[in-house]
Every structure is written in structure tokens, then in C-alpha cells.
Amino acid sequence: MTDLSVDLAGVRLENPLIIASGILSQHLLRRCIDAGVGAVTTKSITPKPMEGHPPPSIIDVDVGLINAVGLRNPGIEAFEDEMRRLVEYAHGRGVKVIGSVAAPSIDGYVEVAGRMEDYGADIVELNVSCPTIEEVHSMGSSPKTVGRLVGEVDGALCIPLSVKLSPELREFTDIAEEAISSGADILSLVNTISPATSIDIWRGEIRLRCPGGVGGLSGKALKPIALARVLMTYREMEAPIIASGGVSSWEDVVEMIYAGATAVSFLTALLKRGEPTMIGEMLRGLRNFMERLGFGKVEEMRGYALRKRS
Known about the structure:
This protein is α/β, with parallel strands linked by helices.
């Protein structure tokens, strides 16, 4: 019988599908849980509330979405009730919860990560790659900074730690290796790519209202880049990887796993569809594909493209 479950750094997921961090409300996250995902990720939460950038902060373009929300969130203290309710709902249905955290300082990351664990998160994800918040983006820009950050946060946690990296880093492999060697259990690859923007030619206006008028691009245009980052990273270190970037079908899920991913996250496709029926479609497609090719477990597919090449 085909087994879709995966082991993500000691955390068992019923299947490899994860809702990526973003802007989904509690209601939509619950609908995704009911639709059968293996895990959901919270919006990125910071030590203090953040208002984010003025609307419009998400622009629909042909190849995806351009996002400049600016980490709008209520802050970790006010997030407690929402997080505890989400964890209770998810765990009652066999779904895991990943708490995404961001901060302008290492101490801030340590504080928020610890609170996420207290609130019931199964995994903490460090967002060090938000392109529209410089203090956060700079945290993931060098091996030294990532090493210090990961070491401090890992020392304060008992649950697995994931680090979400930007796709355009010059020292991408070095930073990924430093994250793992400093205590990270999982790599989340990748966040949006920036800068990206869009202009309304009839009004002659930049469509995003954030300072500078640029944001991060997600969606189909990002997938080949994300896939390459997963492939290259897995080839170097075989670390547990959550792949993300342009995933919108079961075929995309298979590609990411073939490249070396343990689990696969997505959000833009869900936002464009507007409802979570795609989750069932992806699970059915993945299961049928595995049965057709004779894969009994998802792990048997991991890195298959590299093994075929050798």
C-alpha cells in the first residue's frame, strides 16, 4: 500500500504537503487542514506588532504574485490565543503546525521562537529572507550572521528548527551549510525573489504602495529557480528540505521531491485558486503517480533525479 507519510527531522507528517507562511487567516488555514495537508505554517510573527505596508500590497501578475505585505502581524504576545487554537485544531486532525518567526535582532528571534514552542508549534521556521524588511533580510545574508542566529535560537529550543533562505543569495550553499552545522534541522528553500514590481499603464502608477514600490515575486516564474536551489543543496549536504516556490500541482511536488525535498510547501497557487480543493487533487495525483511507478514510500523518491544521473 502506498504510504504518503514523511519524517521531517523527527516530526511525522501524514503527507509531504505544507501550507507555506503568508497571509492566510485562521479560517483558511482550518480549511486547508480539513482538506488534508500534512502541516500548515503560520504567518511570520515578530516580537512587537507590525502594521506592514499600505495596500495594495499583493499584486497579481501573469507569472505569480508580487508581495510587499511587510510582515503585518499582531506580535508574539497577542498571537498566543490564535496560535493555541490553531494548534489544537490541527493536532486534533493529525496535522502539524510550523511557527514562522522574524525579528530585527538575534534576541528577538530567540524570544519569539521560544514563545512559539510554548504555544505548541511542532517546528519553528526562521524567516531570514523577507525582501521588504531589511532588518530581517539581512539576518540571512551571510554565513557568519546565520550561524550566530541559528546557534542562539537552537540553544533555546527543544523542537526542530528550520531556516528559510532567499533564492538570490550569492553565498547560498555556504549559508545553507552554516545553518545546518550551527544547529538547524531543516532548510526551507526558497522565499520569494526580489526586486519585482508592476505598473498600471493607464494610471501611470506603480501598483504597489510600499516604499520603493517593489516586492517579492512568488509563483510559477520562481519554480525553476527554487527547483535548482533544492537540487544543488541536496547534492551538497542531503539535509532535510522543505521545498517551496511555484508549486501548483502534484507534478511540481514530484519534481521537488525528485530534486531532494522531504516536504513541499505552497501558497501562491492556493491564493490564486481561492479555495483548497487543489490539496485533494495534489494528494490523489501524487498517490496515483507513486502507485503507477511502484514507489511504496515518498522517501524512495527523494533525490531520485540525482540517483538516475549518477
